[in-house]
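User: I've been trying to design a sequence by hand for this structure and keep getting stuck. Would you show me what you'd pick, starting by listing the structure so we're on the same page?

Assistant: Good idea, let's start from the same input. This is the structure you sent:
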């Protein structure tokens, strides 16, 4: 895993959680340092302010269409790590029945639509 951001000692827990999310397959690191974009949903994840450095680890999820939700960053990160592992296991480089089906589908689509 190649780090896309090295945390600074002054970063809040919320900021560090966003940096961790950027390491996962389903997130696209945005140009902005403290933002990650979930590529499947378009949700933009940013840290909520923690001016007193209380370590609350809250994140803001901005959904397409404008709705925002505050979530517990630790729980959100755990769920996203599970999804990352599923993508690794079941993706083109994975093993098992789902990965085999993905590889077969990728090959068929590449042939049909000349994507090779």
């Amino acid at each position: 895993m190649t780090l896309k951001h090295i945390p600074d000692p002054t970063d809040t827990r919320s900021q560090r959680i966003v940096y961790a999310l950027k390491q996962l397959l389903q997130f696209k690191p945005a140009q902005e340092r403290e933002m990650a974009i979930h590529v499947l949903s378009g949700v933009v994840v940013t840290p909520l302010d923690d001016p007193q450095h209380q370590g609350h680890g809250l994140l803001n999820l901005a959904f397409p269409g404008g709705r925002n939700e505050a979530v517990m960053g630790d729980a959100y990160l755990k769920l996203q790590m599970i999804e990352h592992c599923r993508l690794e296991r079941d993706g083109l480089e994975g093993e098992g029945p789902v990965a085999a089906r993905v590889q077969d589908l990728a090959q068929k689509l590449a042939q049909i639509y000349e994507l090779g």
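That's my pick for every position. To get oriented when you compare it with your attempt: Strands lie at 27-29, 36-38, 44-47, 58-62, 68-72. Helices lie at 13-21, 73-90, 97-112.
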